[in-house]
């Protein structure tokens, strides 16, 4: 056993033309990890069920959830999602959220757990946008707190886009610290306020990015003393990404994961226990699918080396 990885067979279902490309990585990535031996078939698990209304409603409003499940969003709200609204799409989001919950629980035993999908950080408490309907890491964070598995949670969001939905959900809540390091000029153009936002200029290169991360992350972990860490490790920080404006190389993106995951692995709670970590993959939209898969696979390779 390496570490548990949530896999979602629902991704095999066809999507409308124009929406297939950003989703195919979720099918190809597990194949690559198995082919190269980074993961074993026994490492993968399917979410135990669709996420329950009770768990979703700790984060999202009842009105939004009911309208989402009834496919009753108004035209403007539905258009913000980026995908055609359907029952299949809603089930997919519920399965993603449950995968993150299940992985979070497994992380207490294995040190780390990965979700092949997730990172739906643009989902607000009362609406979704930009391919995000339900905020998987926020839902899992509230699940852990509700079941008294963790009190203080740190969310480290290194996707190229600010985690605006996550920031809104946890605003004025000192039990969850939200840290987002993202492109200043990237979507969302109107940012929310995280507990800590680092907005980077266009074309920020490997050295500048890593220097900033080195400057912040260890002190932040020591300051906040979390019981649990959620890591959103989008690979849309690459210079080749169609939806990103930063300038990282493939090597620099891997070094980002090496540094972040090493910092998490070294950190200890006040009881001197290792802090469990849950990773959701987030974005990746480079024109060549092989580059997206390689960048995401690097995260798993690094996690295997650090946490085994």
Automatic annotation (TrEMBL):
Alphabetically ordered keywords of this record: Hydrolase
A GO term, aspect molecular function: hydrolase activity
All residue ranges annotated as the Histone deacetylase domain in the record: 39-288
Presence of the UniProt keyword Calcium in the record: no
Pfam families on file: Hist_deacetyl
One annotated GO biological process: epigenetic regulation of gene expression
Domain of life: Bacteria
Family per similarity comment: Belongs to the histone deacetylase family.
Name the UniProt record assigns to this protein: Histone deacetylase
Species per Swiss-Prot/TrEMBL record: Nonlabens arenilitoris
């Amino acid at each position: 056993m390496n570490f548990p990885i949530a896999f979602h067979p629902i991704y095999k279902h066809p999507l409308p033309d124009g929406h297939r490309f950003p989703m195919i990585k979720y099918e190809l990535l597990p194949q690559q990890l198995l082919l190269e031996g980074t993961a074993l078939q026994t490492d993968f698990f399917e979410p135990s069920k669709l996420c329950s209304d009770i768990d979703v409603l700790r984060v999202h409003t009842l009105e939004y959830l009911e309208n989402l499940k009834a496919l009753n969003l108004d035209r403007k709200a539905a258009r913000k999602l980026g995908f055609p609204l359907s029952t299949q799409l809603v089930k997919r989001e519920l399965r993603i959220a449950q995968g993150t919950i299940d992985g979070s629980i497994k992380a207490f035993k294995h040190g780390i757990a990965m979700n092949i999908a997730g990172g739906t950080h643009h989902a607000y408490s009362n609406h979704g946008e930009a391919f995000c309907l339900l905020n998987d890491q926020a839902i899992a964070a509230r699940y852990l707190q509700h079941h008294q598995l963790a009190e203080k949670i740190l969310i480290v969001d290194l996707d190229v886009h600010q985690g605006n939905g996550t920031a809104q959900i946890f605003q004025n809540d000192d039990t969850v610290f939200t840290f987002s390091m993202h492109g200043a000029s990237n979507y969302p153009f109107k940012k929310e306020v995280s507990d800590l936002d680092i907005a980077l200029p266009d074309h920020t290169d490997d050295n500048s990015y890593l220097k900033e991360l080195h400057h912040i992350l260890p002190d932040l972990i020591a300051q906040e003393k979390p019981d649990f860490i959620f890591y959103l490790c989008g690979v849309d920080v690459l210079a080749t990404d169609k939806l990103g404006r930063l300038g990282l190389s493939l090597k620099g993106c891997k070094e980002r994961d090496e540094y972040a995951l090493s910092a998490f692995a070294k950190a200890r709670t006040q009881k001197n226990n290792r802090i469990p970590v849950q990773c959701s993959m987030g974005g990746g939209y480079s024109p060549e699918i092989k580059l997206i898969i390689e960048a995401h696979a690097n995260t798993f390779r690094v996690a295997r080396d650090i946490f085994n």
